[in-house]
Predict the 3D structure of the following.
Amino acid sequence: MDSKTLILAIVPVILAGVFIHVVNAAIHRDSDGPRWWLAGTAAHGLGLGLISLRGVVPDLFGIVIGDILAAGGFMIMLEGLARFAGQTVPRWQHAMLAALILIGFPALTWIVDNAAIRFAIFGVAVIVPNLLMLRYLQTVGARAGQFGVRLLRYNIYFFVLSLVFVCGDVLLLDPDMPGILAPNQTVAVGILSMMVVETNLVFGFVLLSAGRSASVLRQAALTDYLTGLPNRRAFEAQVAARLAEEPDDQPKAALAVFDVDQFEQVNDTYGHDVGDAVLQHVANVLGAALRQTDHVARLGGEEFVALIHAGSGASAAEIAERVRGAVEAQPFRSDGLEISVTISAGLVELAEAQPSLTRLLKLADEALYRAKGAGRNRIILAAA
């Protein structure tokens, strides 16, 4: 098949990709990435459409604008991937590629009419943004899973290698080619590989969006909606991992159940909106007072739970006492309202013969009940 027919065969594939990107962008309106992928795919497809019309439309459209759009579409896709990863492409990289495209194609069309070099510039303008995508794919993979990342990564490897081969063949074996639409088996192979790449790009980007949505849903299922802390399900997984570790290789730890003292009075006096704000305040203080090695979660109601690891020179009980003091020292303040807040806690140490989480919570609850009965605002250590 000739190159023109092959390029025309790609256009329906790209049109289908544009439609898929439209749907994807509508579903994931909270992310910039899909909109940029849509724009990049549309620009690339329009460029290929103009290229296929060379000889029918003026060279300004069929060569210059067609090449600019077909190559520039990948720059737009690159920016979309960077934004999807929470970053942006450095301006100097965009400026470098834009200068290559905007100067190279017109110069090699009207000043030095050399189709082989023009094709090589097209290859460079496509290869570079594809290679730059690899950096952002690594960031996305660490956050939202690897399935779409792997598809795009292997797609990029295939695309870059095929373009290097085709460009090298054209420059070395056919430097006087009259144009990209002239009969050339190597160029035809390159266009066929592009058809595969276009399909994989569309589905790869859609898989990235789906992976992000799945990650958000998983996180929501493990997060308390009010405080932003992990919920009981997430905490159980954290403790299960800790209980599976060898106790001799880890610092001693303890499980603490914290309860906001006289919380019902706060709700009755100030209303549930203020009560919710107080819980958020306590959650923030707990998170700040504990360390990154500790785990804190909301059990429900006004109860919080923490897995506390002993630090250098401080036992888990001393750390729990420091947390209690931090809550007492920071009253809740909002709109001129100030409410003193204290917490009580039951603490149970993790012994070598480690019981189940249910048993640990039961022992901590019993100690918490004693702390409440002893006057509140204190830590009680569970009996061994």
